[in-house]
C-alpha cells in the first residue's frame, strides 16, 4: 500500500495544499501549529472515513468556509486507487472511490490500510474502555468487512432498544405489544453481539501471537507483553443477562451488558500496565501495539499499510527511537516533527523532506 499524492482544500488551516510522497520515508517538519498533523489526519480519513482526533467533523472545515475537500491517490497491488472526500458544514459528507460515490462511509473500510501512531495513543492504555473499544473496532474493520456489518447492525439495534424503552414509558397501555417487540430486538442484539465478542476475542488472540515477540525484541528480552480481553458478558449468558437486567435497563434507558461495554488490558507478566506501568513502559507498549498492527494487516491482507508517525520521535528516548525506526523496514512512512535533527538524518537520511510553514508547503527536501 502506498500513497502517491494528496490535495487539500479548506481542510483545517489549509486553504490549498498539493503534496507528492516518496514510496519510502517522508518527513514533514516545521514549528508547532503549522498544520503538519492535519496532513496525517487527511490520509487517515481516506482509510477509515473519520478523523483519529476526538472532535466534531465540521470543525475540520477551514474557518469561515462551508466545505472542504480531500483528494488522494494511492497504489494498491500495483493498481491505482483514488479516494475523494467532500466535507460539508451543514450536510452529510460525500465519499467516492475511483470517482464512484459510495452510499455508506463503511464501504471505505479495507481500501486504504493505514496505521497511525501519535502521542495521544497513550490514551489507549491510560483512559477508559471506550478508547480501547474504538481501537479494536478500527483495526478489525480494516481487515474484516463482515465485522463492519455486524458492528453497524449491533449499534442500530442497540439504539432501537433504547428508543423502545422510551416508548414503553410514554405509552404504558401498549406494554404487552412493545414487550413482544423487545423480545425480537433482544434476540437480534444477541445474534450480532455474540459475533462481535467472538471476533474481538480472536483478534486479541491473533494480536498476542504477534505482539509478544515484537515487545520481547524491543525490550531486549526484559519484558513479556500480553493483552487480556475483558468482555462484559459471555456469549452463553448474553441473552439470559439481558432478560435479568431488562427492568433496570428500561428505567435507565440503557443496556447493561454487551460488547458496547467491553474492555481489554495490557499486562507485563502479571502487572497491569495501566495501573502499575511506568511512562516508559506504556510508551514501549504502544510502539509494540502499532508494529503488531502493521504485521497483522500485512499477514491478513497481504499488503503493508501506510505508517503515520505524528511527532512521536520526540516522545521517545534514543534507544526506543532506534528500535522503532529499525522496525519500519519497507513500510511507507510519513513522519511529522519540529526539526530534522542529526539522529533522524543519520537513521533515515534518504527520506524525502517537506517543510511546512503557515499551512503552506515551503520546500521539498
In angstroms, what separates the terminal alpha carbons?
23 Å
Beta content comes to 15-25%
Total count of strands: 15
Shape: globular
Kindly report the spatial arrangement of strands forming the biggest sheet.
2-1-4-5-6-7
Question: How many separate helices?
Answer: 11
Oligomeric state of the chains in view: single chain
Helix/strand/pairing category: alpha/beta
Poorly predicted residue ranges? none
Q: What is Rg?
A: 22 Å
Helix content: 40-55%
Give the topology string: H per helix, E per strand. Answer: EEEHEEEEEHHHHEHHEEHHEHEHEE
Q: What is the makeup of the main sheet?
A: 6 strands, antiparallel
Mean pLDDT, as a whole number?
Answer: 92
State the gist of this model.
By secondary structure, the protein is of the alpha/beta class. It contains eleven helices and 15 strands.
Descriptive notes:
Strands 2-1-4-5-6-7 form a six-stranded antiparallel sheet, with helices on one face. A six-stranded mixed sheet has the order 8-12-13-3-14-15, with helices on both faces. The protein is of the alpha/beta class and 365 residues long. It is built from eleven helices and 15 strands. Helix 10 (318-328) links the parallel strand 12 and strand 13 (333-337). It starts with a strand and ends with a strand. Helices cover 44% and strands 24% of the residues.
Amino acid at each position: 500500500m502506498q500513497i502517491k499524492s494528496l490535495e487539500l482544500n479548506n481542510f483545517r488551516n489549509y486553504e490549498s495544499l498539493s503534496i507528492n510522497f516518496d514510496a519510502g520515508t517522508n518527513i514533514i517538519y516545521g514549528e508547532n501549529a503549522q498544520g503538519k498533523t492535519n496532513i496525517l489526519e487527511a490520509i487517515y480519513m481516506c482509510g477509515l472515513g473519520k478523523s483519529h482526533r476526538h472532535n466534531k467533523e465540521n470543525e475540520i472545515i477551514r474557518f469561515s468556509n462551508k466545505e472542504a475537500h480531500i483528494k488522494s491517490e494511492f497504489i494498491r497491488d500495483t493498481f491505482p486507487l483514488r479516494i475523494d472526500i467532500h466535507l460539508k458544514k451543514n450536510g452529510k459528507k460525500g465519499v467516492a472511490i475511483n470517482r464512484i460515490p459510495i452510499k455508506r462511509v463503511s464501504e471505505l473500510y479495507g481500501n486504504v490500510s493505514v496505521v497511525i501512531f501519535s502521542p495521544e495513543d497513550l490514551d489507549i492504555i491510560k483512559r477508559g474502555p471506550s478508547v480501547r473499544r474504538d481501537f479494536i473496532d478500527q483495526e478489525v474493520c480494516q481487515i474484516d468487512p463482515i465485522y463492519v456489518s455486524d458492528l453497524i447492525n449491533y449499534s442500530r439495534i442497540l439504539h432501537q432498544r433504547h428508543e423502545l424503552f422510551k416508548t414503553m414509558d410514554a405509552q404504558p397501555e401498549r406494554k404487552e405489544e412493545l414487550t413482544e417487540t423487545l423480545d425480537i430486538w433482544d434476540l437480534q442484539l444477541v445474534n450480532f453481539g455474540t459475533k462481535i465478542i467472538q471476533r474481538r476475542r480472536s483478534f486479541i488472540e491473533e494480536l498476542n501471537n504477534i505482539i509478544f515477540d515484537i515487545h520481547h525484541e524491543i525490550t531486549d528480552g526484559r519484558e513479556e507483553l500480553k493483552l487480556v480481553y475483558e468482555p462484559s458478558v459471555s456469549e452463553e449468558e448474553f441473552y439470559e443477562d439481558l432478560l435479568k437486567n431488562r427492568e433496570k435497563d428500561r428505567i435507565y434507558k440503557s443496556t447493561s451488558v454487551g460488547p458496547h461495554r467491553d474492555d481489554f488490558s495490557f499486562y507485563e507478566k502479571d502487572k497491569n500496565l495501566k495501573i502499575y506501568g511506568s511512562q516508559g513502559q506504556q510508551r514501549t507498549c504502544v510502539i509494540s501495539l502499532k508494529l503488531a498492527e502493521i504485521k497483522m494487516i500485512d499477514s491478513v491482507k497481504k499488503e503493508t499499510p501506510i505508517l503515520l508517525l505524528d511527532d512521536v520521535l520526540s516522545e521517545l528516548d534514543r534507544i526506543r527511537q532506534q528500535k522503532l525506526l529499525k522496525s519500519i523496514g519497507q513500510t511507507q512512512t510519513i513522519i511529522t516533527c519540529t526539526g530534522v535533527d542529526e539522529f533522524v538524518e543519520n537513521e533515515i537520511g534518504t527520506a524525502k523532506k517537506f517543510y511546512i510553514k503557515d499551512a503552506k508547503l515551503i520546500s521539498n527536501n
